[in-house]
TrEMBL record:
It holds the Pfam family Metallophos. Residues 87-268 form the Calcineurin-like phosphoesterase domain. Gene3D superfamilies: 3.60.21.10. This is Calcineurin-like phosphoesterase domain-containing protein. The chain crosses the membrane at residues 27-44. SUPFAM superfamilies: Metallo-dependent phosphatases. Keywords: Membrane, Signal, Transmembrane, Transmembrane helix. The lineage of its organism: Eukaryota, Metazoa, Spiralia, Gnathifera, Rotifera. It comes from Didymodactylos carnosus. InterPro entries: Calcineurin-like_PHP, Metallo-depent_PP-like, PAPs-like.
Amino acid sequence: MTDHNSKTVAIYSVPKLRCCQLTHRKSFIIAICFIFILCIKYVSSQYPLLVILKWLLMQHNVDHSPFLNVTGKPDVFPDRMPINLTIAYVADTSLWKEASLLYNLIRSESQIDALVVSGDLDYVDQPLAREHLLTKYFGSKFPIFSCAGNHDHNFWPKYQQTILDRWKRSGIHHKCSGIIGVAHMCTYKGLIIIQIAPGIFEKYRFYDYSQYLENQLNLYHSQWKICSWHKNQHNMQLGNKQDETGYDVYNTCLKHGAMIITGHEHSYSRTYLMKGLHDPIEVLSRNSTYIQLSNGSSVVIVNGLGGFSVSGYTNNSIAPYWASVNHANINGHASALICKYNFNGNMKQALCYLKDIVHGKRDQFIIDVTNIPMS
């Protein structure tokens, strides 16, 4: 009887054991698949599919076409500035949801006159797709000023063509001169906008960007001057970026009282009014909401929150020269810096603010150029 029962147990226990083993194996496979899906979802949320595919394929094609020059004649003394001339500043933009939300946010302003992009235009070498997205939100004739970032250099001639075509449609190419997105300057409704690309192109490694800035800032006269480029010096951003531009370009713009606006680091940071941009950094005034520019002083603003990703901070974020920051550790999102020049009819002042797609305004300050001579 015992033997019979034992056999019976043996006969029925083996299938049960196999069934349990299969169930556990299936659960394990399901768990692995679930974890894999979560990983893919997280990675794709940080780096959208087109970027992942580009990296996986190790795309190294380079457009060797000659760089495009524009030969317009900027105004030596720019036109009178309209009241509340509104310019949005972004960098490190993309082709996906966050950038679309950001462009919609910019478009929702009661008045928006132009967009200035400080490099890294879409991360996937798709200038026509970028142009299509910009046209969707701003129209085909809306003025957009762009310089090259490190993720744009392989296909920069193609980006240049889309930039030039838009300038022609908007009629601003007549007031721009130089190598588009590499070393060009434009006058636009009373603003001087100079964009350069230090640290981006190997063939321009020894180009004297500082001298180019000096020449343009001496030749063209306005109290409102913008210097825009992509990369940074380590101390001039919140993250781990290294020294990639040199301080000469910073200090040339500071010498002429020009605003300095960059990208590259995927966060936002704004200095106090500075009188020296080198080691050590020298602060002129710690007023965080009122910045009075003059020849020999400037403000440095990094806004790399263009919709690609948002970085956290390092010890750089607690440096004593930062007046305002926005980054992942304080729940920062894609953001645009928006400045209204000739604010409410005061030609000497601009109201600037950082606008986050989730939290709205996260920084606001006045810039005053009373102390800057016209020539």
